[in-house]
Design brief:
Layout lengths: L9 H5 L7 H12 L17 H6 L1 H9 L23 H12 L27 E4 L3 E3 L6 E10 L4 E9 L6 E11 L13 E3 L6 H7 L11 E9 L15 E3 L2 E11 L6 E3 L2 E7 L63
Antiparallel strand pairs: 1-11, 2-10, 3-6, 3-9, 4-8, 4-11, 5-7, 5-9
Length: 345
Amino acid sequence: MISGIQVASCNDEERLPDQVNFNEHIAPLLYANCTYCHRTGGNAHFPLEDYNQAKNYASSMAFMTRERRMPPWPADPHYTEFSGQRVLTEREIGIFQQWVKDGTPEGPAGKKPQMPAYPSGSMIGQPDLRIAVKPTLLTANSSDRFMLVKVPFELPAQTYASVIEFVPGRHNVVHHVNGDLLRYNPTQKKNVFEGELIADMVEDTTIRLAYEKLGLPNDDGSYPELQKSTVNYLPGVTAQMYPAGIGGYILPQKGAFLLNDLHYGFTRNEVLDSSYINIFFTKMPPDRPLKEFQLGTLGVSPVEPNLVILPNTEKKVLSRYVVPEDISVLTINPHMHLLGKSFKA
């Protein structure tokens, strides 16, 4: 008796389709890896939701995927794997290249998958409360602007929040946000809405003058409790939703978010930015609270040696911090400005 066994070769799985088309091959990759940002109202500058949109950027997509610049994932996927990472395989990168070579055909309509449904006004879901940031009119200029912004609120009572999400009104000009939470004792602060809402850091020579301009002190001149790093934003980085019991915040009855570094990039036209903060409530306090800390400039550890770079020179600096107790690391976010060329963590 002769029996036959059919064995699938690895090369069969890695082989590209005879002809790559959008509906059958490109759309599934875009919907799994790209439209999270490249959609109407998303963080990216242009959507990639349908055939015509993708066709217009076909050559650019081929180049950016070949260079592994898109999807943006600078960590080494061969070293370790992170939850939620978006990394293309070599075969998937080849599909983008082949689509351009094949003339970017659309393919049979019945093969196109349904694009994922995304919430409006949020990257993660429907919030329980939305607090507007005072709109900022940005004039056309080529300079960066760093703003200090107060976003006050008053709730019926102290409550818990699982996620606090900053949503930029103008994705193309909001570079990043670092924000803290001020907790006021109701007996020490009568009106959390008094004072200015925006202070331009260029105009204020000291941070204390800016704080007083914003009306941050209590009525007796003291300062409220401050929880660092509660609301942050970077393009392509979303607010994290952790498993039940992990993370979360205690929101006071009277409080304010202090966006101590709202960074606007340059704009060629006058634009009005109307950003806002989404809050997702929860009934239970966190079993394992989160704590964020920053190394380097304005952080828990200094930059060594001093970050002064002379003209026509390159400089290597580092920042060290000894973690004083056992922790679970949930997020690492390297970030630097202007003069940085490479970053190693």
